[in-house]
Amino acid sequence: LEIIVTILNLNDNDPQFQQPNLTRSVREDTEVNATIVAREDLTATDADLDIIYYELTATVQGTDGYFAIKGVNNPEIYLQKALDYDKFQSTRLLLYARDRPVGSADLTRTATATITLLITQADTRAPWFLPCALLHNDTSVCISSPYSGIVNISELAVEPLTLRPGPIYAVDPDYTINEKIVYSIVGGNTDEVFSVDADTGNLTMNKIVTSPDSFLLQVMATQANNVRKYSVATVEIKVINKSLYPPHFETGLYSGTVVVGLAPRSFVFQAGDPSTPLTITAADEDFPDV
């Protein structure tokens, strides 16, 4: 008597990841559709020889949609949306491996792999002159105000010029890289009157100015490692007569009068002379015609 015995494969083994915990670094300028984790590093095995079905989810709020897998049976992770280091610096993904399709009524065994992705900052932005203000909370653009200063006519300043709103200073906004900044004057420096220190940004005078003309300098801040990463700021230098005397009011006390119910922007009149608007004036011996 010949008896044929068929052994039925029972689904009694869970899928297995070779590396259930993975960590990868990803540059923020990685191109969309680039592979982040290769298929061979994520493929699960099953002793029951079942087909494996994969699903990927992000566990960190605000990082959904950036990473995806190539297909339900292909666990290769790729970049689906451009990264921005200022939005998030890391995320954690969970990759599920099932031996039955999602929604199957059959007994399903599952394995989970945890993938930690660390976003590293790339050199993507040009230097920022400080102080500056972000443009509508856009971290890629920071608007700085022009610098301004004064020098005395026919007088050579021996110290770096004092400027408003502060000294010439630029930084690499890719702050984890913090590349060295080099300064130079690229325009408006008639007769080479001024110099800028390449390392500090301090503005100094090379020679005196004999006319009351103003200067509108263009100062460039360049990254030392990449001349294509630069920004230009304007510096207005006014040439004035040296001030020896402080301004002073022509009288120590001014008296005016108003009436109840006066409309906004109405004149205040001199006390005792209700037909003459009150005028407050000051004088300066350095500027007798002003």
TrEMBL record:
CDD domains linked to this entry: Cadherin_repeat (cd11304)
Main location: membrane
Record has Repeat as a keyword: yes
Pfam families: Cadherin
A biological process term (GO) from this entry: cell-cell adhesion mediated by cadherin
Molecular function GO terms recorded: beta-catenin binding; cadherin binding; calcium ion binding
Domain (Cadherin) ranges: 18-129, 145-249
Name of the protein described by the UniProt record: Cadherin-related family member 5
Location in the cell: Membrane
